[in-house]
Amino acid sequence: METVNATGRRKTAIARVYVNSGNGKITINKRELNDYFPVPEMQIKVLKPLKIAEATDKYDITVNLTGGGIKGQAEALSLGITRALIKIDAEIKPALKAENLVTRDPRVVERKKPGQPKARKKFQFSKR
User: Fold this and answer.
1) What residue segments make up the domains of the chain, in order of their start?
2) Which residue, 109, 122, 55, 58, is CA-closest to 82?
3) At what angle do helices 40-52 and 70-88 cross, to 10 degrees?
4) CATH number given to 4-98
5) What is the pLDDT along the chain (128 residues), one digit of tens a residue?
6) Measured CA distances, 16 to 28, 65, 78, 111 (Å)
């Protein structure tokens, strides 16, 4: 199998995923998965598409992760792995879609507007 690559995004996090045949090793920015995501919930989120596709020990995954926080990065990586698995085998798409892993979450932070302290919050109005 040749290398399959895919991109996952969430908020400001971008995950570039490269999948090769192997024995289930996941390397993120030259670090192990358990090392990069010490929180168990994030590890579960990242491994979910592999568990659904029953491919936890079929592929070696190399990832370049940039931007965002830990949660955004974990969700971007999950989407990237999902897209790569669909490229490898299109028949698993319905199972992944049933778990809401195929859709990119478009929500991002709204920008701050000038003349306001935040995006929507206004300065206190003073009548006198």
Assistant:
1) 4-98
2) 55
3) 10
4) 3.30.230.10
5) 789 999 999 999 999 999 999 999 999 999 999 999 999 999 999 999 999 999 889 999 999 999 999 999 999 999 999 999 999 999 999 999 999 999 999 999 999 999 999 999 999 999 98
6) 10, 7, 11, 26
Residues 6+ positions from 1 with CB-CB distance below 8 Å: 20, 21, 88
Identify the helix (H) or strand (E) that includes residue 13: strand 13-21
- DSSP-derived pairing of the beta strands 31-32 and 59-66: unpaired
Separation CA 106–CA 73 (nearest Å): 14
Q: Residues with Cβ < 8 Å from 61, sequence gap 6 or more?
A: 17, 18, 19, 20, 25, 26, 27, 81, 84
Q: Which two tokens stand for residue 117?
A: 């302290």
In this prediction the pTM is: 0.91
d(CA 26, CA 17): 10
Measure the CA–CA gap between 25 and 27, rounded to whole angstroms: 7
